[in-house]
């Protein structure tokens, strides 16, 4: 049985970065990836980058099938680049196959031709990502019109009528994207509140803007049954005690993603998983077995590419650094939902600050007051920044507005560096930019 210093299961963000780093240091590294179409992992092939490319091209008015072709060219370029980034290292190897633990330190790989090989690793890293949750709805398995986000980005034709089950990250980003390409879109969410974690005023603005774009929302919708009729699908759902239905060409299921641990053979090991199937880790990403770590979505918690990348940093710091990094020191994590304009957040919003009993000063301003928003021609949205009354440090910010996905990183930096909010207020910014709004917002 071949032994490697490092075995990485799954070509995910953290894993590939680790593979590149460790092999460039001369260590032997084996990366096992079950699909040739997934070299480089989820983000570049079927998630962040293709979806944002499609979202942008929808904004630019590109026709749907042309946009899908452009997206395919992009992913194929990135896949090839990512493969070579690892495989071209002298001490690294990429093996195509499905990996499964058969003991704490032995992994069996089923190759494409059905042949099985076993390897062992001095260190093993699980980086298998997450897969869509398919809710238990009558008829969902039988319907020919069900899509996950991957299939939705590979459609040959634009669906005239599209339903989306789930109004979270994927549901919102895809609803707007398909609407812009020309589909009639209905979003069904089981929750009665739209974006329940966001402040009510922000959620209300987004809700009204998306509805103005022509998207239909059915909140508090309990989907009961899906039936295919003449090539279309009828979705029956309960809402406020009434039975309703919607007939569509395709149904995108976007009701969450769960850690990819099924069929990984973890039952053959002492690696613990929680009741949601996530690999249980300690504060340094170690599993319950010595020398086995988990990276990225597979360990549960926040599902973002940049979290997987930061997992890589924690592991490198442990193996070759001063061993100071911990998962629990990752307290300031921003996010952006790439609707248009984007919604971005870092730290506490008002709802959370109130729930925690924090006293805060609130600075807020409508995007309409920002010159750059006029230049862009989209004045929708709001800036909200919460400041600690005693320390003057920023507790959190929500920006719904053009380029918020860039501006939020500036605020994140200020929070991380524990800068007083006055530093951002009095900063010299280039003009015209959305960032310069902080001069006025924080007054
Ligand atoms: C549509 C969509 C849009 C998203 N947009 C964003 C965004 O804008 N920004 C953001 O930060 N995040 C976004 N995310 C989330 C982001 O994609 C994930 O958090 C991130 O890709 C997780 O990376 P990872 O390192 O956990 O592993 P992944 O990149 O998921 O890699 C796991 C790899 O393991 C392989 N694998 C699985 N099981 C096995 C096995 N048994 N043997 C061998 N190989 C195996 C898989 O084929 C896969 O290539 C999005 C997700 C989706 C679905
Ligand atoms: N911009 C980004 O960073 C980005 C973009 C896309 C995805 N992602 C990541 O991918 C993950 C998965 O995205 P997602 O949108 O699938 O999950 P999500 O958790 O964001 O949203 C799931 C939604 O589905 C609803 N839901 C659940 N079960 C339902 C049911 N039976 N019927 C109707 N509605 C139901 C929930 O109420 C929720 O609103 C996210 O958690 C996020 O971390 C990130």
TrEMBL record:
Its cofactor is FAD. Disulfide bonds join 43-48. InterPro entries: FAD/NAD-bd_sf, FAD/NAD-binding_dom, FAD/NAD-linked_Rdtase_dimer_sf, Pyr_nuc-diS_OxRdtase, Pyr_nucl-diS_OxRdtase_dimer. Residues 333-439 form the Pyridine nucleotide-disulphide oxidoreductase dimerisation domain. Keywords: FAD, Flavoprotein, NAD, Nucleotide-binding, Oxidoreductase. The active site is at 431 (proton acceptor). Transmembrane segments: none annotated. Binds 1 FAD per subunit. Residues 5-306 form the FAD/NAD(P)-binding domain. One of its GO terms (molecular function) is flavin adenine dinucleotide binding. Gene3D superfamilies: 3.30.390.30, FAD/NAD(P)-binding domain. FAD binds at residues 52, 297. Belongs to the class-I pyridine nucleotide-disulfide oxidoreductase family. This is Pyridine nucleotide-disulfide oxidoreductase family protein. It comes from Ligilactobacillus hayakitensis DSM 18933 = JCM 14209.
């Amino acid at each position: 049985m071949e032994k490697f210093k490092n075995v990485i299961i799954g070509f995910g963000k953290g894993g590939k970065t680790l593979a590149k780093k460790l092999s460039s240091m001369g260590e032997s590294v084996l990366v096992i990836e079950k699909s040739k179409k997934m070299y480089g992992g989820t983000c570049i092939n079927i998630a962040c980058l293709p979806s944002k490319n499609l979202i942008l091209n929808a904004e630019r008015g590109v026709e749907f099938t042309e946009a899908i072709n452009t997206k395919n060219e992009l992913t194929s370029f990135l896949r090839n680049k990512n493969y070579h980034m690892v495989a071209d290292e002298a001490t690294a190897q990429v093996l195509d196959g499905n990996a499964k633990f058969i003991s704490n330190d032995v992994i069996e790989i089923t190759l494409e031709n059905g042949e099985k090989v076993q390897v062992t690793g001095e260190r093993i890293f699980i980086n298998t990502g997450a897969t869509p949750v398919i809710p238990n709805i009558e008829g969902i398995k039988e319907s020919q019109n069900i899509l996950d986000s991957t299939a939705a980005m590979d459609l040959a034709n634009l669906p005239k009528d599209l339903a989306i089950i789930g109004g979270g990250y994927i549901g919102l980003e895809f609803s707007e994207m398909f609407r812009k390409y020309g589909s009639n879109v209905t979003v069904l969410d089981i929750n009665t509140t739209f974006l329940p974690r966001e402040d009510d005023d922000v959620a209300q603005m987004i809700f009204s803007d998306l509805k103005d774009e022509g998207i239909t929302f059915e909140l508090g919708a309990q989907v009961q049954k899906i039936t295919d009729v003449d090539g279309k699908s009828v979705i029956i759902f309960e809402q406020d005690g009434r039975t309703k239905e919607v007939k569509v060409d395709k149904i995108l299921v976007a009701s969450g993603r769960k850690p990819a641990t099924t069929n990984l053979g973890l039952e053959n090991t002492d690696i613990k998983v929680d009741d949601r199937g996530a690999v249980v880790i300690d504060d340094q990403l170690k599993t319950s077995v010595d020398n086995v770590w988990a990276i990225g979505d597979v360990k549960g918690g926040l599902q973002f590419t940049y979290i997987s990348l930061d997992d890589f940093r924690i592991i490198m710091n442990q193996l070759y650094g001063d061993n100071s990094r911990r998962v629990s020191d990752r307290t300031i994590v921003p996010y952006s939902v790439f609707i248009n304009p984007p919604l971005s957040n870092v730290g506490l919003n008002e709802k959370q600050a109130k729930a925690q009993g924090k006293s805060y000063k609130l600075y807020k301003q409508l995007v309409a007051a920002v010159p750059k928003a006029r230049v862009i021609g989209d004045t929708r949205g709001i800036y909200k920044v919460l400041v600690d009354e005693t320390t003057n440090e920023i507790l959190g910010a929500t920006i719904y507005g053009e380029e918020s996905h860039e501006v939020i990183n500036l605020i994140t930096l200020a929070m991380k560096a524990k800068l007083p909010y006055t530093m951002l207020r009095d900063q010299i910014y280039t003009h015209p930019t959305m960032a310069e709004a902080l001069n006025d917002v924080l007054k």
